[in-house]
Amino acid sequence: MDEENFPTIEYSDPVITEKTSGYFTGFVISVFIAALFIFLAIITLYMFNLTNNQEILFVGILILSYLIISPFLIKTRKIREIKILGIKTIKELVEKKIFVKSKPRIKRVFVNRNVYVEKKAKKLNIPRFAYVGSTETKHYHRRNCRLGKLIKNKYKEHSNTQSFFKKRGYKHCKMCIKK
Ligand SMILES: [Zn+2]
């Protein structure tokens, strides 16, 4: 990949995932219905004096009817999710084993790594200095001095302290710095 193209952002094709839900609800309902059937069976067997064969037939009918209705109790639904991810490729310094004459050494190398990014608003961070000096005239001024603003960019030197300029042999501007 070309060095100048960093960082690059590529957006993936939409990723569609399908999820099925509703198993738990179905399970709860099934258990509830089963408990109801068992309760019904116990009441019936307790209240009516049935013969052994009748009891077996009755329980058999209950189990059979439960097996018939249970598949209808579990209702599932499908949910679709669509995702589009932005992938930014950046350079990252990592440690990697390299083999020199079959002896392993640790060396720092650049590898390409993908990270997910969010778009952010631009913010300029320009530092402001209290004083500006001219390397041409060897005078320094306060930031807001009219004469200081006339200094060409190639001759400008900045600092937050006056001592910075004094050490370098600058003289203070008589207009903006009163002694
Ligand atoms: Zn000045």
What does this entry look like structurally?
The protein is an alpha+beta fold and about 180 residues long. It has 3 domains: about 1-15 and about 85-120, no CATH class; about 25-75; about 130-170, no CATH class. It contains 4 helices and 9 strands; from the N terminus they run ββααβββββαβαβ. The protein has helices spanning about 25-45, 50-75, 145-150, 160-165; strands at about 10, 15-20, 75-85, 85-100, 105-115, 130-135, 140, 155-160, 170. A 4-stranded mixed beta sheet has the order 8-6-7-9. Helix 1 runs antiparallel to helix 2. The model has no long low-confidence stretch (mean pLDDT about 80). Bound molecules: zinc ion. Zinc ion binds near residues 147, 175 and 176.
